[in-house]
Amino acid sequence: MYVKRNYSLWMTVRWSKKSLINGLIYSALIVFLYEISPIPFSLPWQPISVIGVAVAFFLGFKNNSSYDRAWEARKIWGAIVNDSRTFATAILSLPGSEVVFSWKKEMIFRHLAWLVALKHALRKGKSWEHNLPVEKMVFTPAFKEEIKDGLNPEITKYLSPEEWEQIQTYSNFPTQLLKRQSLELEKIHESGALDSYKQVWLHQLISRFYDTQGMSERIKNFPFPRQYASTGLWITYIFCALIPLGLLDIFEQSPAMHYWLTVPFSGIIIWIFFLVDRIGDFSENPFEAGYNDVPISSITRVIEIDLLEMLDEKDIPEPYPVENGFLM
Amino acid sequence: MYVKRNYSLWMTVRWSKKSLINGLIYSALIVFLYEISPIPFSLPWQPISVIGVAVAFFLGFKNNSSYDRAWEARKIWGAIVNDSRTFATAILSLPGSEVVFSWKKEMIFRHLAWLVALKHALRKGKSWEHNLPVEKMVFTPAFKEEIKDGLNPEITKYLSPEEWEQIQTYSNFPTQLLKRQSLELEKIHESGALDSYKQVWLHQLISRFYDTQGMSERIKNFPFPRQYASTGLWITYIFCALIPLGLLDIFEQSPAMHYWLTVPFSGIIIWIFFLVDRIGDFSENPFEAGYNDVPISSITRVIEIDLLEMLDEKDIPEPYPVENGFLM
Amino acid sequence: MYVKRNYSLWMTVRWSKKSLINGLIYSALIVFLYEISPIPFSLPWQPISVIGVAVAFFLGFKNNSSYDRAWEARKIWGAIVNDSRTFATAILSLPGSEVVFSWKKEMIFRHLAWLVALKHALRKGKSWEHNLPVEKMVFTPAFKEEIKDGLNPEITKYLSPEEWEQIQTYSNFPTQLLKRQSLELEKIHESGALDSYKQVWLHQLISRFYDTQGMSERIKNFPFPRQYASTGLWITYIFCALIPLGLLDIFEQSPAMHYWLTVPFSGIIIWIFFLVDRIGDFSENPFEAGYNDVPISSITRVIEIDLLEMLDEKDIPEPYPVENGFLM
Amino acid sequence: MYVKRNYSLWMTVRWSKKSLINGLIYSALIVFLYEISPIPFSLPWQPISVIGVAVAFFLGFKNNSSYDRAWEARKIWGAIVNDSRTFATAILSLPGSEVVFSWKKEMIFRHLAWLVALKHALRKGKSWEHNLPVEKMVFTPAFKEEIKDGLNPEITKYLSPEEWEQIQTYSNFPTQLLKRQSLELEKIHESGALDSYKQVWLHQLISRFYDTQGMSERIKNFPFPRQYASTGLWITYIFCALIPLGLLDIFEQSPAMHYWLTVPFSGIIIWIFFLVDRIGDFSENPFEAGYNDVPISSITRVIEIDLLEMLDEKDIPEPYPVENGFLM
Amino acid sequence: MYVKRNYSLWMTVRWSKKSLINGLIYSALIVFLYEISPIPFSLPWQPISVIGVAVAFFLGFKNNSSYDRAWEARKIWGAIVNDSRTFATAILSLPGSEVVFSWKKEMIFRHLAWLVALKHALRKGKSWEHNLPVEKMVFTPAFKEEIKDGLNPEITKYLSPEEWEQIQTYSNFPTQLLKRQSLELEKIHESGALDSYKQVWLHQLISRFYDTQGMSERIKNFPFPRQYASTGLWITYIFCALIPLGLLDIFEQSPAMHYWLTVPFSGIIIWIFFLVDRIGDFSENPFEAGYNDVPISSITRVIEIDLLEMLDEKDIPEPYPVENGFLM
């Protein structure tokens, strides 16, 4: 997530330079062909403009949906923050005073293990994502390290080696960690230190973690439907392919100008439409370990700080760093 | 669900070739009639373009609604994942230690039976769906097999023959399976191993399964209202019928060109509008056993794996295969 | 609810023939007046087209809202299905084994009485609805019978004559039926067969029925605000009144044509806009006993079948019939 | 709330006659100045039409938000209906049989006192509302009386004089009435007639009333943000100011006509845009004691009837009257 | 939040004068260059108008999202009002009569401490906010004082010096205050004056405060995605840069006029588009201590008054003042 006020125009252009350059080259080519060809193949602008409106609608719909996906992802991780605080508070205050502190700490640590396991699980690449190689994340070196190191160094801070080893025999680590939490609660219940009523409330909190985990996985595993994304892309291509042909027709009336004005003007229109498409495209998958991601690393860190402070731990980690304007 | 980054332009064209070809033929016909007829029946473009905007609005609304239906369907099945994990965890940890493991396993197996029964029930054809014959699902052979084999081989893995036989006497299998789950809980409650409080929480989980089942059935049984779909279709037809007439009027000013330019240009515009309509049309029914479905087979498999691993079963099935880019 | 794939073009035209014919007559009249009048009162098209865009926006908003109303109505009745199944399951499994089966059956029957009472209450006409006389429902004879017969034959299947008589002394039958359910639960609680905890859960289910009943009544009793509906209608009228005047101006340049082309072209545009308005108008009130209603009769039947099967009744009614493509 | 099918065109025009007349006068003035002035200050229409599209977007957004506010207000009051029925049913059936009926009646009466107190509180004027003087509500005489009489005659039907006097020492009557309900429940709990579990459920219902009360106050106290409303208004003004200038340019080509055609045509376009703006403006505040309000008086009456019938009271009030097509 | 009916046109212009002036200067410059340059670099208007439609779409999307953010923020703080009332009522009525009043008062005071701590935490500047220096808040002197004084004077009214000191050792004050509330409840529970069931209900209320706190932090910490905001800004810039070039082309046909008409007309169009962009921009961050904020200071005051009145305190603060039309 970018946290400065605005991307500069220069960054924006550089980021989408491919479509700008291709647009210019393509337009120049059309003008050149038009010049050398005996056939005046220009097209009237009016019908093109109707296509333009339809494309604008489609891109609007796509951007809206992408934004909704990102915003929902952020909401889900917001809920994880809230429920984590509630859960830790509940673990600290609801069981009877005969429950030892070390058990409470273990529960909260296992919760943090669930959290980091989920964070890393959400960043495995998908066939529809951009899958930028991690080496290219040059703007965010600390984040690059985190991705490279993987789950192991983070989870072993919170889980005993035996338990970590056992969890690794399963397919979905977070799911099985939550099951373990539930069995631990039953143990305390059987010992008499947690009545049935409080146990169910704690189980309902675990149910909420299953919910937020599953909702994150849903956004991760169900892309913006590819048929919509592809249609949007192809009609943008067709519309842009028609633009210089339409401009030729308009500029034709003042032949002196059209050699050099059709090309930049056409290039700019093409670039605007591809830019709008690309913005949606790059915001679609909020967990793809890219610069526009929902910042789940820093959210995780916020939860770690709050929960470790609740345990009055001494060794509180720093807030996640902002690197070159990016908070990941 | 297609899981590659984009449908190729070629696939897109092939999939909607009918409207492209028809559009071209129709336009050619109009041009031909215009040539041979003494009446200059072309139409001005400006009013057509207002119709175009209205049609673009309508299609935007239709696409939006279709997308919402698909996304809601995915959310419902995401909730089924979450609740299934919660339910299995609850069955394993909430009843007292005097409850035998075989009962717990039976409960979780009956839950999986409910799941596969629901999956198959959602795939029975509806009069407003596309009802592609299953033999034509050539891109996804494994899925084709699953549909052909039907519910029986899947449900008998999880249900005793007697129970399965009894369930078949009812109209709605999943509904009656959940009632059975509830009666089983009461049995354990009467034996004293599950207090009233935990029983109610488990009953609330069953209530959630009634909810998600009913919500799936709602999307299945209540189509995007046919009056909206039909209106969208007919006004698209009328708009497209007018397009070549309007282009004729524009191209008229340069008669040398209009024989061959009206036809492809008109064909492309017609194709774009029908493509946008068709995308919505094919995304409307997320459970019609077609390529753009919400992938409930693979979601079912994910649940099976998680729950069988919770039971520490040995025989864990493989994740559902991606076939030619499709995950069903 | 229409359940075939699409209304045919012919049905669509016939259903909205009034606006097509009026549009044609009006346009012909304008052309005629223009011919005989010495004043050339045509109007430029460009400003009309801006009005057209504004009207398209407004109709889009109206259609969207109508659709949302229908979809919400369907969701509410989906929730009634889910909660009914949950409630019946709860009645069958939660009370202690000392509770006699006849009481359980009575509770579930009274619930079905609530359901049919609600169904009929939702179909009383409102001053803003279309109020098509029931005799005109020629496509759905079975449904026509149901409406004519009214509540009595349906509710007496599920309620004793004494109770039915007593309920009729109140204004709102469903409300008082639910109160009765609640008092019955207290009776069982006082007898010791239902602990406080389960009683509250059952009361919460009754609370959900109050919710869904009240939500249905809200949609029934609060129309799409008439100020929006009227504004939409009047600006459509004004826009359509201007259309032939604008076309005259365009066709003027080729006088040979405008006698016969202005009229059909104008008629088609007028028809399209009125059709789009009319679709929204006829989908606005999802419980007006019309062809586009949410099919609450068949949903009611689904619940009856499921609940009677749960009671292992012998006399299970048939699913609701589809008549001429309509499921009511 | 208007409850007839449509406002007549005449009512609509009369209601917005100011903008129609002003639009005509302004257009006439421009035409007159254009005639007498040596400077041909007309403007090209094309750029004006782009502004028109932007204005149409903005008004669409404003109307949408206004509608959402009204609809949410209606939902909240729908929830008040549902929760009131649930609460009354709970008061009648959950406490043990040793609780006297007079206490139950007192609780339900105090609930009705909360309801009417909330109704009147929502109708105090706000600085951004239209604040039509109550004397001008000529179409709804019964409603006018209700507003004039104020809270006192309604609340004293349900509250003892002592309690009413005490409540008046606080700022927010409904809030303190609910606190009182909660203390009453504790009293019954301490007497042993309401176990802890049922008490909490009843307290949760009181929490719901705090929710719906607070949600009503939120809509009442937080207007559609004035920066959006004002921007919408000012850009509509600018757009409308430009309209006759643009029309002059178009009509210029046929000078014989433009004296008399620019004026009415321009007036109609101006009127349409102001009408669309005004509709949103007048639907923005659903509790401003105006004709387009959410009908909270009649909803209150519905609740009174249902609850008094549950108590088997003899003196049931009549449903709220529809006056001249308005239900308030 | 502005609470008068409309910002005056003058205020609106003054607030956005920068874009109006820049637009005029830029347009004048273009006209000047066009005059002195031998190259006729004007551009056709039609393609510019398609860009205009795309920009209008994008700004519509941006304004919509900004509004949704503000409205959600208001909803969250509405929920804080409701839950605070419920919580205070619960503290006063649910614990047994052996609990001393001073403990109840302490709990409610600590809740108010949480509230003011949250209010101040939400007003720390963010890198993407406008961060208007507090000295410039000349219209709202009382609010300026509040911001300058900071948290300390407000929180010490509700928290003992020792507790306040201890809370300051943590990163997130509100989080740790809620944990403290939960531990206090356990203390009362262990003393026997609050049964397990009521304790869990009170813990659920604390969970709701964690939710609303976290939701406020989510809106505060997750801006409207900067990639969308920047794209919107840059395409508005490009569109506006093209406007005078397009107008030149149109006015060219009547050269006598274009010196002085292109400039103001172009300036007005540029200003409208930047105004619409700016409105969204300034409504995006509802907690940035600016004039368009959600009025959390006055909401806090409302809660303080209600809760102190519930405690029958003598020293009730005044409602928050409206200063120059602003309620903060």
Automatic annotation (TrEMBL), chains A, B, C, D, E:
Sorted UniProt keywords: Cell membrane, Ion transport, Membrane, Transmembrane, Transmembrane helix, Transport
Membrane topology label: Multi-pass membrane protein
Locations listed in the record: Cell membrane
Keyword Cell membrane (UniProt): yes
InterPro entries per UniProt: YneE/VCCN1/2-like
Transmembrane segments: 20-37, 43-61, 228-251, 257-276
Similarity remark: Belongs to the anion channel-forming bestrophin (TC 1.A.46) family.
PANTHER family recorded: UPF0187 PROTEIN YNEE, VOLTAGE-DEPENDENT ANION CHANNEL-FORMING PROTEIN YNEE
Annotated protein name in UniProt: Bestrophin family ion channel
Record organism: Algoriphagus taiwanensis
